[in-house]
Structures are given as C-alpha cells and as structure tokens.
Amino acid sequence: MNAMSRCRINWSWCQKNTLPLYGTREVKTMIINDPLNLAPAITAELETVFDPEIPVNIVELGLVYEIITKEDGSAKVIMTLTAPGCPVAGNIIDEVQRKVEGVEGVSRALVELTFDPPWDKSMMSEVARLELGFM
C-alpha cells in the first residue's frame, strides 16, 4: 500500500507523516518519510523544476506526492504529471532526478511516476491558481 492510499484509510497516520503545502485553500499534503532530514533541501530543489508549458513549479502545481529518504543516502520522489500523455514527461523526470541527486547528503535519487491519484486542478496551491488565473 502506498502512502497516498494509507492517508485515505488512516487519517491519523497521514497527519503525523505529512507536510502541509502552505498557501492552499484546502489542506494539501506531501507525504514525507525523511530520516535524513533532507526533505526541506529536496523540496527547495523541486521548486526550481517547471513544466515548460506552465509557468509554475511542480511543487506548487501539486505534482509531488511523496519524498522518501533512507539511511543509505538514497532519496525517492513519487510524483505525477498534469496529464498521462505529457510530451515533456521524460525531461521533467530527468530534471527532478538530477536536482535531487545534487542535494548534499543524497547519494542516489529515484523518481517514481504515478497517476494514482490522478492530478487535477484542485491539487494546485493558491499561489499556482493565482499565477494561472484560476482565482
């Protein structure tokens, strides 16, 4: 069971193991499992990754679902895309991997793409909605 499913089933687990995405109207969460305390640095790097067609970073778009670090220095980002047929999917995933690998303390970065749950506009932060004219 992935962490997003776990949150749907066990809200108390989700509250203890997630990081709110601030600035949102609804409560949005990014699940963090981070024994190395690298999630803030990883998140800062992910905030520099943009979909070339949308002038908003992938964190504000709500595309990053989980950040997981392990004692061996590996970091995993579980994310989605705005659409399954995104023509720049490979570029975005490669950029995420490179930027996470560049974080001090990360020895290896993995990026897992998921469409469960599927992304929709409600996952965007308030900042993203304002930037894109949805508010």
UniProtKB/TrEMBL annotation:
Organism superkingdom: Bacteria
Transmembrane spans: none
Domain MIP18 family-like: 41-110
Protein known as: FeS assembly SUF system protein
Residue ranges the record marks as coiled coil: none
Matching Gene3D superfamilies: Fe-S cluster assembly (FSCA) (3.30.300.130)
Pfam families: FeS_assembly_P
